[in-house]
């Protein structure tokens, strides 16, 4: 199974974002955390920075909106150059309509769930999405420790994806590193957001390659992949 590694610029040097984007050019996507200091207790960057990043790199942008009122703001991130836009179901007023609008504008639509949000109530929404993000830490800050209690939720989500025969990517974000990525892949994830594990390495590009190798090896042996 192909694994995708999305380095998170939340762990990069914000004064050198163009250079930091180039440092991981072998990555599948560049993960951009957008925080508004309302939905989460942190403030990061917005549409102008995404526009600048889109011009500075050929790596597609995966924008994770940890903001209130994503129904209003998410389409602007597609227009700014994001190839994938993730909104939190806890903040969206009309998630199906929003997912369709993101897709209609030409980007992949993704929905995120905080650790305490169960997947089961949203089973019927899955066909409207291109990716589902299971948060493996509480959203808002980088560098947090991975929550092992999220592994059963990842497994249940993978089972629902398989049940409906969907080509839906399953992303995990939070505490993903060389010591946790294999457990995530074994549980069913195939897209991995890694912040400090990539940008804290001496060679970020090599860190991306190593994480991808670990994830693909774990996926190849996983029961869910064999059944897929």
TrEMBL record:
Gene3D superfamilies: Aldolase class I (3.20.20.70). It is an enzyme of class 5 (isomerase). Pathway: Carbohydrate degradation. It holds the Pfam family Ribul_P_3_epim. Its cofactor is Fe(2+); Mn(2+); Co(2+); Zn(2+). It comes from the Bacteria. It catalyses: D-ribulose 5-phosphate = D-xylulose 5-phosphate. Its EC number is 5.1.3.1. Keywords: Carbohydrate metabolism, Isomerase, Metal-binding. The active site is at 33 (proton acceptor), 173 (proton donor). Binds 1 divalent metal cation per subunit. PROSITE patterns: RIBUL_P_3_EPIMER_1, RIBUL_P_3_EPIMER_2. GO terms for molecular function: D-ribulose-phosphate 3-epimerase activity. A divalent metal cation binds at residues 31, 33, 64, 173. Substrate binds at residues 8, 64, 140-143, 173-175, 195-196. NCBIfam families: PRK05581.1-4 (NF004076), rpe (TIGR01163). Catalyzes the reversible epimerization of D-ribulose 5-phosphate to D-xylulose 5-phosphate. Belongs to the ribulose-phosphate 3-epimerase family. HAMAP family: RPE (MF_02227). This is Ribulose-phosphate 3-epimerase. The lineage of its organism: Bacteria, Bacillati, Actinomycetota, Actinomycetes, Kitasatosporales.
């Amino acid at each position: 199974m192909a694994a995708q590694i999305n380095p998170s610029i939340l762990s990069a040097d914000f004064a050198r974002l163009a250079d930091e984007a180039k440092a991981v050019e072998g990555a599948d996507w560049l993960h951009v955390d957008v925080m508004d200091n309302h939905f989460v207790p942190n403030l990061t960057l917005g549409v102008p920075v995404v526009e600048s990043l889109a011009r500075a790199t050929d790596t597609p942008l995966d924008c994770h909106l940890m903001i209130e009122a994503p129904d209003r703001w998410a389409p602007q991130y597609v227009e700014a150059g994001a190839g994938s836009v993730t909104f939190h179901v806890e903040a969206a007023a009309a998630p199906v309509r929003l997912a369709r609008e993101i897709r209609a504008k030409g980007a992949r639509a993704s929905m995120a769930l905080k650790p305490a949000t169960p997947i089961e109530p949203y089973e019927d929404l899955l066909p409207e999405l291109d990716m589902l993000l299971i948060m493996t830490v509480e959203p808002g800050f980088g560098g947090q420790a991975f929550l092992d209690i999220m592994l059963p939720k990842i497994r249940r989500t993978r089972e629902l994806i398989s049940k409906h025969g969907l080509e839906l990517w399953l992303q995990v974000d939070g505490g993903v590193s060389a010591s946790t990525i294999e457990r995530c892949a074994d549980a069913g994830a195939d897209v991995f957001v890694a912040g400090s594990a990539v940008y804290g390495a001496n060679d970020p590009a090599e860190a991306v390659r190593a994480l991808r190798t670990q994830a693909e090896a774990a996926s190849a042996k996983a029961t869910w992949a064999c059944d897929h």
